[in-house]
Write a structure and sequence with these properties.
The protein is an alpha/beta fold. The protein is built from 6 helices and 5 strands. The chain has helices spanning 14-36, 44-54, 67-80, 123-139, 170-177, 182-192; strands at 84-87, 100-103, 112-119, 144-151, 165-169. A hairpin with an 8-residue loop joins strand 2 (100-103) and strand 3. It is globular, with a radius of gyration of 16 Å.
Length: 195
């Protein structure tokens, strides 16, 4: 059955069940809201995010953006590209280990946990974030961890060797989304690291 949702976790795994049940209920709410409004596949917000990142004076490369602002920017970008329920049900928790959860497309079953990192990053920070995200994906019975980052020095990082987690810079993500949909971009990233 196409509408059947399976939460692959034991019945006593409260945190995983809470996440999967929340995802299911949020997707139902999203379907109701979408039936009232026609969704635009690429709104002006996407263009605003892309130009903000590329603008010479307002670029993240020359402008100190707080981690919270960057998380919000990533969430806006994912929502703008058709992701379902981009939020964090554990936002009240001090540090859940991830910033947002989403389904890559309408009707998708894959639960993706997102971590957003910004600043002067290095390999150690990216690897540590990737491992922490991997633990969350495994503990919460998610399908994939997506680490979206922006290094102010413009460096690129890979997460080869951390199963179920892929890393992509936000400007690389924006560039890829101009050509393909979010689900396809994620599949390409997974294939690139052999996941």
């Amino acid at each position: 059955m196409a509408s059947l949702v399976v939460a692959p976790c034991p019945l006593d795994d409260r945190e995983s069940l809470k996440l999967h049940l929340w995802a299911f209920m949020s997707s139902l709410a999203g379907l109701r809201a979408r039936s009232k409004n026609v969704a635009n596949t690429q709104s002006t917000e996407f263009g605003e995010v892309a130009s903000w990142l590329r603008g010479p004076k307002r670029s993240l490369l020359s402008h100190a953006v707080s981690p919270t602002d960057f998380e919000e920017l990533v969430v806006r970008l994912l929502q703008d590209q058709g992701a379902e329920l981009v939020e964090n049900p554990d936002r009240m928790a001090k540090d859940a280990g991830f910033d947002a959860v989403f389904l890559p497309a309408k009707g998708a079953q894959e639960l993706v946990l997102v971590e957003a990192k910004v600043g002067r990053l290095d390999v150690r920070q990216i690897v540590d974030s990737g491992r922490s995200l991997q633990r969350c994906v495994i503990e919460r019975r998610g399908d994939l961890g997506l680490l979206i980052y922006h290094d102010r020095a413009g460096r690129r990082f890979d997460l080869h060797g951390i199963p179920r987690v892929v890393a992509i810079s936000v400007d690389e993500l924006i560039h890829a989304l101009r050509v393909n949909n979010l689900r396809h971009v994620i599949a390409e990233q997974v294939a690139k690291v052999g996941g």
